[in-house]
Amino acid sequence: MTTAIHRSVKLAMAVAALGGAPAFAHNSLVSHYAPAGYRHDIEMRVTHGCKGSPVKEVRVKIPEGVTNVSVEQLNGWQIATNMRKLPKPVPGEAGTMITETVDEIVWKTASTPLAPGGRWLGFRFRANLPNTPGEILYFRSVNLCENGDDKYIDLPKEPLKASTPDLGRKLWDFVSATPGPSTFLILEKPARPQYPYTMPAR
User: For a designed S-S bond to 168, which of 8, 102, 114, 123 qualifies (C-beta 3.0 to 4.6 A apart)?
Assistant: First the structure.
């Protein structure tokens, strides 16, 4: 991704933050960028409840192409994963081949729900990202509250990639004008391999 695209997207997000617009009232990833092909740590932040009701459950849908998902333990919350079959096996950890991957992560509070306002909570997981620089991944999520729910599952009306002209404005239009925008991750071409060694072929 070029520096100009970086500036365009960052400017759009800065305008959202300064204007108090709804973009940052939604679920959002800590970073909107990640190196394509890396094993990457992802954090989604939940910043409020459902119209004054505390959050008791959070669900995140894992996009196609994202595999080998592991979830960080979160004190006070129970964690479950729903699985889906892969079209073909892919390499897993310790030289194994895997035939299924996490389709959805579910966090349920076992103690105190997330307060409806004035508090936020980070939900973290690690995953292998597809080696497709320029692609934008969308992580659909749903917050279930003691009363009601908030769904962040909508996608842009037009397909977007890192190379899309005027990407920053189009992303701003998406997050500000869409009732429940999915949070997103832009895959970049990495400057170097993730590891300073080469694993043997199997």
Answer: 8
Rg of the chain (C-alpha set): 18
AA identity, residue 184: F
Q: How far is CA 90 from CA 44, 49, 86, 101, 128, in A?
A: 26, 38, 8, 10, 11
Give SS3 for 61: strand
Q: What are phi and psi of 3, to 5 degrees?
A: -60, -35
b/e map of 91-128 (b: 16 or more CB within 10 Å)?
eeeeeeeeeebbebbbbebeeebbebeeeebebebebb
Within 10 Å of residue 30's Cβ, how many Cβ atoms?
Answer: 11
Task: Lowest mean pLDDT of 20-29, 62-71, 158-167, 187-196, name the range.
Answer: 20-29
* The three-state (H, E, C) secondary structure of 104-154, written as one string: EEEEEECCCCECCCCCCEEEEEEEECCCCCCCEEEECEEEEECCCEEEECE
Q: Which residues sit opposite 183 in a β-bridge?
A: 139
Say how far apart CA 92 and CA 99 lie, in whole Å: 9
> Look-up: residue for tokens 């960028």?
33
Hey, what amino acid is at 136?
A: I
In sequence order, what are the beta bridge partners of 127? 40
Residues 158-167: tens digit of each pLDDT: 999 999 999 9
